[in-house]
Amino acid sequence: MTGIELSPALMLSGLVAVLVLWVAWRLSIRRARKAAKAARGGVRLLSLTGRVVVGALLISGVQWLALTHPDTSGWVKLAALAVPAMFASWVLVRALTVAAVDDRVRGQRRR
Fold first, then answer.
1. Which of 7, 12, 33, 56 is the most exposed, having the fewest neighbouring CB atoms within 10 Å of its CB?
2. Is 30 inside a domain boundary?
């Protein structure tokens, strides 16, 4: 026995098979990255929505407590209305003055 003898056609078909597997692997990585990116966007939106709802409930609860209790002073009522208004104004100004969005993932180069 001298070992394994392969014909040129068999070697070529093996090389083509390896090449096809490599291309399929690369395409699956790209599809997985796109799916992960889409999932991150959905999670971000859901997380942001939850935080907005919790913040609104907290602010509304404090304002309701300050305005419905007759023994609170005018300063407490002013603070209960003015402080959330300042935060809301700050958030709106920041949101409306965004110049550009960089959607790169940290550590990755732009392709």
1. 7
2. yes
Q: How many domains does the chain have?
A: 1
Question: Amino acid identity, residue 31?
Answer: R
pLDDT of residue 109: 60
Q: Is residue 87 part of a domain?
A: yes
Distance, C-alpha 55 to centroid of its chain = 20
- Ranges of residues in the chain whose predicted pLDDT is under 50: 1
d(Cα 23, Cα 9) in Å, to the nearest integer? 21
Would you say the C-alpha torsion 13, 18, 19, 21 has a positive or negative sign? positive
Q: Is 108 inside a domain boundary?
A: no
What is the per-residue burial (b if ≥16 Cβ within 10 Å, else e) of 28-53?
A: eeeeeeeeeeeeeeeeeeeeeeeeee
- pTM exceeds 0.90: no
